[in-house]
């Protein structure tokens, strides 16, 4: 069993990364800091002759790590009642991969949300709208 921690913070040495590492103490895992990679925004080209994918960034390498993991921990700070922009771009690209036949039905997905004040309330949009509905 392999575990992948995807840190969505834009800050090096972030609370999101620190809490993710604490959560996984004693569990062999790899950590991927999205701030250290290049991800392009999703470009919807379905109604054109252009291919949907964009090979000019690091997504293919990231997705290979994602596919190899059995457990994925998504870690993000709360940014204006939502996840970080870095994690949102990754999730947009990730879910587009499933429209092309990829599957994650056998994977365990964990969500670690870090917030300064009232994170239980302020994190609800991330849980309900961004992750739960997408995974359903």
Automatic annotation (TrEMBL):
Pfam families reported for this sequence: Flavodoxin_2
Question: SUPFAM superfamilies attached here?
Answer: Flavoproteins (SSF52218)
Where in this chain does the record put each Flavodoxin-like fold domain? 1-96
Q: What keywords does the record list, in alphabetical order?
A: Flavoprotein, FMN
Query: InterPro entries in the record, alphabetically?
Result: Flavodoxin_fold, Flavoprotein-like_sf, ISF_SsuE-like
Taxonomy, superkingdom:
Bacteria
Protein's UniProt name: Trp repressor binding protein
According to its UniProt entry, this protein's organism is Levilactobacillus zymae
């Amino acid at each position: 069993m392999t575990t992948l921690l995807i840190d969505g913070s834009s800050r090096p040495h972030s609370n999101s990364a620190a809490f993710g590492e604490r959560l996984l103490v004693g569990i062999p895992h790899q950590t991927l800091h999205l701030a250290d990679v290049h991800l392009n925004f999703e470009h919807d080209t379905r109604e054109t002759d252009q291919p949907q994918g964009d090979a000019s960034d690091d997504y293919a390498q990231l997705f290979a790590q994602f596919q190899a993991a059995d457990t994925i921990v998504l870690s993000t700070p709360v940014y204006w009642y939502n996840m970080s922009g870095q994690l949102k771009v990754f999730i947009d690209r990730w879910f587009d991969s499933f429209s092309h036949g990829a599957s994650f039905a056998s994977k365990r997905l964990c969500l670690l949300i870090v917030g300064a004040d009232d994170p239980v309330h302020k994190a609800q949009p991330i849980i309900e709208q961004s992750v739960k509905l997408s995974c359903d």
